[in-house]
Write a structure and sequence with these properties.
Pfam families: Peripla_BP_6. 39% of the residues lie in helices and 18% in strands. It is of the alpha/beta class. A hairpin with a 2-residue loop joins strand 14 and strand 15. Helix 1 packs parallel to helix 10, helix 4 crosses helix 5 and helix 10 crosses helix 11. The longest helix has 20 residues.
C-alpha cells in the first residue's frame, strides 16, 4: 500500500475498504515534488518514504478534519526545470491544498515564483538561506539554513583555537550559497579564510584543490560545503593526501549514506547535524528525545533502513502542515498560511520551531549538534 509511486501518481493512502476516513467530502490533497532519483536521491528517497508513512498513519487514524489525505507526488530527479513544471501541474491540474517538497535548493527556487503567484502554502525541505530570507509570504522551510550551519561549524572551530581555515565548496546552488555565507560569518567571527577553493559537483578528483589548501601557510582546519557525491570524493582525497588538519563537512551530508560512500576516510571528521543521527544516545531528559526516537523506530520498522536527517525534514514539514490545517479548521490557503506562521514551540526531529511573520524557518543555530565520526558511526561531541 505504501509503494513508491510513479511520476504523477496519486498516493491514495487510506482506501475505502481499509480506512475509517469519511468519504462525504473531497480528500485533502498534499502535493510533493522531490528528487527521488538522480544525484540527489539520497535526499528525496527518505523524504518521500516519510511522507507516505505518515499520510498512511494519519488516514488509519481517521484522516484530517474527518477527510482522507492524499499525497500527489512527482519525481523531479534534481532537475530545476522539471520541478517548476511539476509544481505548475500540482497547482493547476491536481488542485493540491498545500505543497511539501523541494529536496534541493535549485528545485525549490525554481518553484517559488509559481507558488507565490498561486498563493498556496509551500513547505520546502531544502537548506539554503535564500529560500526563506528575505521572507516570502507563502514559503516556509524546515532545515536550518546554510548560514546557521556555517556559524555552528565556525563556533566549534573557534572553541578549539582554530582561526585560520581552508574552505572548499561545490559550485552548485547549495555549495555556492554555503561558501558565501561561510565567508561572511568567518569575517564576522574573526576567523580568517586563508584558502578558498571550489570544484564542479561532477568532478571525480579534487586533489589539486586540496593540495593548494594543504600548502597554504598557517591553515589550521578545512571545511567542505556541499552535498551529494562531491563531499565523499573530497573526504577520500583528503585521506589519500595524508592531510592531518581537523576536517569538517556541512549538514548537507548528514546521513549514514555519506558514511558508506566515504568509508574509513571519514574517521574523525565533524559536522553540524540534528539529534536524529544520534537518537540512541541522547538522554531521556532532552526535549527532542521522544519525537526523535519515535520517528526513528517508525521509519526503520517500516523500511528496514536507517533514518536520515533529510527524512526528518519531511517528518517535521508534514507534522507542521497537519497542525496548521487543524488550527485553521479548513484547507483555505490563507488560513493555513496564517496558522503556519503562528506556530510556536513545536518540538520536531530537526529542532524546536518558533515561526513568525519575520521568520518562516523558526530554528536557532544551536538546534544543530556537532557530531564526529568514530568507528564508522556518528557520535555526539560533548
Amino acid at each position: 500500500m505504501l509503494k513508491n509511486l510513479a511520476v504523477g501518481a496519486v498516493a491514495a493512502l487510506g482506501l475505502a475498504s481499509l480506512s475509517p476516513v469519511a468519504k462525504a467530502e473531497d480528500p485533502i490533497r498534499i502535493g510533493s515534488f522531490l528528487s527521488v532519483t538522480g544525484p540527489a536521491a539520497f535526499l528525496g528517497d527518505p523524504e518521500l518514504k516519510t511522507l507516505e508513512l505518515y499520510v498512511h498513519q494519519l488516514n488509519e487514524n481517521g484522516g484530517l478534519l474527518g477527510r482522507e489525505v492524499q499525497l500527489v507526488h512527482y519525481d523531479d530527479s534534481g532537475d530545476a526545470s522539471k520541478a517548476r513544471t511539476f509544481v505548475t501541474r500540482l497547482l493547476r491540474q491536481d488542485k493540491v491544498d498545500l505543497i511539501i517538497g523541494g529536496s534541493t535548493t535549485g528545485a525549490t527556487m525554481a518553484a517559488v515564483p509559481v507558488i507565490e503567484q498561486a498563493r498556496v502554502p509551500f513547505i520546502s525541505l531544502a537548506g539554503a538561506e535564500t529560500i526563506s530570507t528575505p521572507v516570502k509570504k507563502w514559503v516556509f522551510k524546515m532545515p536550518q539554513s546554510d548560514r546557521q550551519a556555517a556559524r555552528r561549524v565556525l563556533t566549534d572551530m573557534k572553541e578549539r583555537g582554530l582561526t585560520r581555515i581552508g574552505l572548499i565548496s561545490g559550485t552548485g546552488g547549495f555549495g555556492a550559497s554555503g561558501r558565501n555565507v561561510t565567508l561572511e560569518e568567518a569575517k564576522a567571527m574573526g576567523i580568517e579564510v586563508v584558502a578558498d577553493e571550489t570544484y564542479n559537483p561532477k568532478d571525480t578528483d579534487v586533489t589539486a584543490q586540496l593540495t593548494r589548501i594543504r600548502n597554504t601557510d598557517g591553515v589550521q582546519a578545512v571545511l567542505n560545503f556541499d552535498f551529494g557525491q562531491g563531499p565523499a570524493i573530497v573526504t577520500k582525497n583528503y585521506k589519500q593526501l595524508g592531510i592531518e588538519l581537523p576536517f569538517y563537512q556541512s549538514h548537507g551530508v548528514a546521513s549514514d549514506s555519506f558514511l558508506k560512500l566515504a568509508g574509513d576516510a571519514a574517521k574523525g571528521l565533524r559536522l553540524p547535524a540534528t539529534a536524529l543521527l544520534v537518537a540512541d544516545t541522547i538522554p531521556d531528559s532532552d526535549p527532542q528525545h521522544g519525537v526523535v526516537t519515535g520517528y526513528k523506530k517508525a521509519y526503520e520498522d517500516r523500511y528496514n533502513s536507517s533514518v536520515s536527517t533529510f527524512g526528518g525534514y519531511a517528518y517535521d514539514g508534514f507534522q507542521l502542515a497537519v497542525q496548521a490545517i487543524k488550527q485553521a479548521g479548513s484547507t483555505d490557503p490563507a488560513k493555513v498560511r496564517d496558522a503556519l506562521e503562528s506556530i510556536q514551540g513545536y518540538v520536531g526531529v530537526t529542532g524546536t520551531y518558533n515561526l513568525s511573520a519575520k521568520d518562516h524557518m523558526g530554528l536557532s543555530y544551536d538546534s544543530f549538534r556537532i557530531l564526529e565520526v568514530k568507528d564508522g558511526h556518528w557520535t555526539l561531541v560533548e
